[in-house]
Amino acid sequence: MKADDFMKLDAIFAPRSIAVVGASSQEGKVGNAIFSNLLHGHFNGVLYPVNPSAKHIMCVKAYSSILDIPDLVDLAMIILPPQRALQTVQDALEKGVKGIVIVSAGFREVGPEGRALEDQIVALCHAAGVPVVGPNCLGVINPKHSMNASFSTRLPKAGNISFISQSGALCTAVLDFAADRDFGFSKFISIGNKADVDELDLLRYLHQDRDTEVIMIYLEELRRGGLEFIETVKQITTYSDHPTPILVIKSGRTSAGALAASSHTGAIAGSEAVYDSIFEQAGMIRVDSINDLFDFASCFTMKDSQGRRKVPAGNKVAIVTNAGGPGIVATDMTISSGLELATLNEETVETLKSHLPATANFHNPVDVIGDAGSDRYENALTAVIHDNNVDGAIVILTPQSMTNVLETAKSVVRIKQRTTKPILCVFMGILDVSAGVKYLQEHGVPVFKFPESAARAFGALSYYAKWLERQHLAQFPLKHDEAKAKEIIESCVARGQTYLGEIDGLDLLRCYGFPVLETKLATNAVEAADLAEAMGFPSVLKIVSPQIIHKSDAGGVMIKLKNREEVMAGFEEIIANAQKYDENADIKGCLVTTMAPKGRELILGANRYPIFGPLIMFGFGGIFVEVFKDVAFRLAPIKRNEARRMMHKIKAYHLLKEFRGIPASDTETLERLLVSLSDMVTNHPEIQELDINPLMVHGVGQGATVADCRIILKAPEQNAQISRL
C-alpha cells in the first residue's frame, strides 16, 4: 500500500457489506466456517454468500458470481484455489469492492508459480487502489462490529487492544488464551503472506483507530524494515498527540543463522541484532513470550481519572505483601527488570508504624504480615503510594484463612482511582483468589499470578516512560569530504580491490573526520627502520596482506618497538610469522606507524544486510570483542541522540566514566564518530563490512585515535542484487 492509503482499510475492518466468495454449506470447509461465523456472530451489515453450486447457504440466498450481487459490496472474502481466486479478484474489482481478504493458501509460500499469481493479484489491486489482506491468512476480526471474518470459532469480546499476527495458527491459540483471561480486542488481524497490506500499513491504521490503545504484534520477518519503518513507528510510539505503545514478539530470537562474514562486526551481529535495533530505534517493546505480551498489554491500558495512560515517572517501586517469600522474589525480579526498590522517606515509615503491628516490616518491601485484613493493606498502600520516592507499587496477596480477598481488591481499586501512579497486583493462587481477581480485572487493575510477571510488566512500563521522556541533544554540524571518499572507493572497485587495509582504509576514514595516525608501507626491514625513525619511536608494525585480515591471529602485529634494531628484527619476525600462517598469502610488507596515545580500546563496526541496509556496532574492542561481545547495534542512519543511547546500552559503559583514578573518556567525540560512521556507510553502499578495532578513546577533550581498520567493499551492482533477495 501507499503510505497515505492506510485509511482505505476501513473497508476491511468496518464494512457495511461482505461477499463471502467460496461460502459453503458443508461443515468442515473454511468457506462454511467463515460464513457461519459472520452470520451467527450477528455481523451488523449485509452478507452475500457466493457459490455457483448453491442456491442458498444457511438459508441466505447465494449468488453464482460476485458480479451478480445487485447491491454495493465493501469487502470481498475469497476462499478459493489460487487460479480461481485471480479471476474472482478481477470480478471483485469490476464490481467496485473497496477491500479484499484472501484466506486461501497456495501462493508465494508454495513456489514460483504461486508467487506469480500473487504478484498478478497485487498488481491488479494496486492499479485499482484496493487494499488486500493475505493471502494464506486466518482473516480479520472486529468485535465492536460483531465481525468475525475468519475461520476461528471464537469472537472475542470488544476491548482496546489490537493484535497483528503473521501466523494464522497462532491466532486461534491467542484467541483461546485471551478468552481464558477475559481479554478484549479492538481489531484482530492475520496478515499471512503480506502480499499487499503489511505491518507498517496496519500500524498506521491502528494508531488512528480511536478504539485501539495498545498494539500487539507477532512477527516472523519484515520486508520493509529500514528507515521508513523506524521513522514511521517512532512517530506512532512517541511524537503524535496520542502515542501508542507497540509490543512485539519476534520468532527466531535464538537462531544461529547469522550472515557469514569475515569482520568482527559480521561475526557478532546476526539477523536478530538487526531486529533488536529496529525495535529499539522505533520505540517498540520486544517481549519473550505470549504470556508477557498479554501481561504487558494489560498494564498499558491503565488510565487515571482524566483518561490518561498511567506510566511511572521513574523506575522506583514499592512492594506491599503479606508474605515474606513472594516479597523477596518480587524484589529480585524488580532489580533484574531494570527497576529500583524505592527508599521510603521517614514520614512514610512513621505512617506505616502507626497502622501496622510491631512485627511488620516498615521498609520496602513492606510486609503487612499474613493475618492482614483489607484495612491494613489499604493503609499500607496509601502510605507508600503518597511517598515522593515511589513511582508505582506492586501489591502481593497470598490467601490465608483470615484474608478477605475481595475486600482487599476493593481497597486497591479505591486507591488506584485516587492516584496517577500505576499499581499492579499479584494475587497468588486460582480458586481462593478468584473473586478478587475478577473484581480487579473489571476495574482495570492488572493482576498476575506470580510476582515475577508483575515485575517484568512494571519494567516494560518504566522502559516506555523513559522512551517518552528521553532528551533530545542538538545535532553535530558535520562536514565530510564525500567526493574524495567516493573517489577512493571507485578506484579500489575499478581495480578489483575489495579488501581495504589501513593504507586505503585510513584515507577513507579521514574523509569522514576520523583521527588517524601517519601510516606508511615498508617493503623491507631497512625501509621500516627509516620510516620509524622519521616518525618517532616507539613504533608499531603490522603485516599487510589481502589474505590476512585478523593480523593478531597470524602474529602480524608488534608494538612498542623502541629503536631501529627492534624495528628491523620485528619486521623479519612478522614476515616469517605471516608466511607460516598462510604460505600462499600475498605479503606486501609491513605498515609502520607510531603508538597511539593511551586510551580505552573500543570497536566501531558496520555490516550491510539485505533489505535493512547497514547495521553499525559500538562496544569495547581489542582482541576480546568476540569473547565478551559487549556491543550495541543500530541500523543506519543515526544521529547524535541515537548514538548516545547506543553507547549507554553496553554493560561496560560506566568504564568510560572516571574509574579508579582513570579520567573519564571523551564520549562526545565517540558520539560524533558514530554519526560520521553512519553517514559514511549510508552514503557509500559499496561498503559491505567495516571494523575500526581498536579505536583508542582518550580523556575528555582529547579525542580518539584509529589504531586499526579493515573495510570490505562490493560493487554497487552486487549490493543491488543482494537487496533484491
TrEMBL record:
Molecular functions (GO terms): acetate-CoA ligase (ADP-forming) activity; ATP binding
InterPro entries xref list: Acyl-CoA_Synth/Transferase (IPR051538), ATP_grasp_subdomain_1 (IPR013815), CoA-bd (IPR003781), Ligase_CoA_dom (IPR043938), NAD(P)-bd_dom_sf (IPR036291), Succ_CoA_lig_flav_dom (IPR032875), Succinyl-CoA_synth-like (IPR016102)
Pfam families for the chain: ATP-grasp_5 (PF13549), CoA_binding_2 (PF13380), Ligase_CoA_2 (PF19045), Succ_CoA_lig (PF13607)
Record's keyword annotation contains NAD: no
Keyword Transport: no
Superkingdom of origin: Eukaryota
All copies of domain CoA-binding, residue ranges: 12-107
Record keywords, A-Z: ATP-binding, Ligase, Nucleotide-binding
Protein's name according to its UniProt entry: CoA-binding domain-containing protein
Species the sequence originates in: Fistulifera solaris (Oleaginous diatom)
